[in-house]
User: Fold this.
Amino acid sequence: MTLLQVPIIDISGLIFQTNNSADVIAEQIRQALQDYGFFYIVGHGIDEQLQQKLEHLSQQFFAQDVETKLKIRMVIGGKAWRGYFPVGNELTSGKPDLKEGIYFGSELEENHPLVKAGIPMHGRNLFPSNIPQFRETVLDYIDSMTQLGHILMAGIALSLGLEKSYFADRYTKDPLRLFRIFNYPPNSSSQSA
Assistant:
């Protein structure tokens, strides 16, 4: 029996656009999607320090007591679907999850047309006021991941023989962004029983 290995594709050529690298990467993406349906990426250019900072600040947030974390609870975010939820407050297949988390999205002001119209998942984010740099780090990370998403969609478009901007021009220019940070506390099974 042969074990299949998920393809790993270095996408740095899509970012830096060296020689014919975009064509080579597009072919690798096409082959991976045709044969496996998905692939891993390396060479994505997401700043390692930004990733580490986000992890550190997230750990700081989740290390706090529940009452402190509930200062940015999801009910405050309303239709924007932003904020913190404690262990057991999300369900999977009708059962409480053994995780806690925070939801974020595009940072939109109250006067933004989508917010004024009350469109779900649009609005302001809720950030802990007691952890410096949390807001900036999360927003920088969301922006970085959004740019990476645009780069990947351009690579997928090329892999389909389409113009690089095909998806951006038609579907993904202004994507609905939802970013979640989860924590699985070691004692969560006793809290949700």
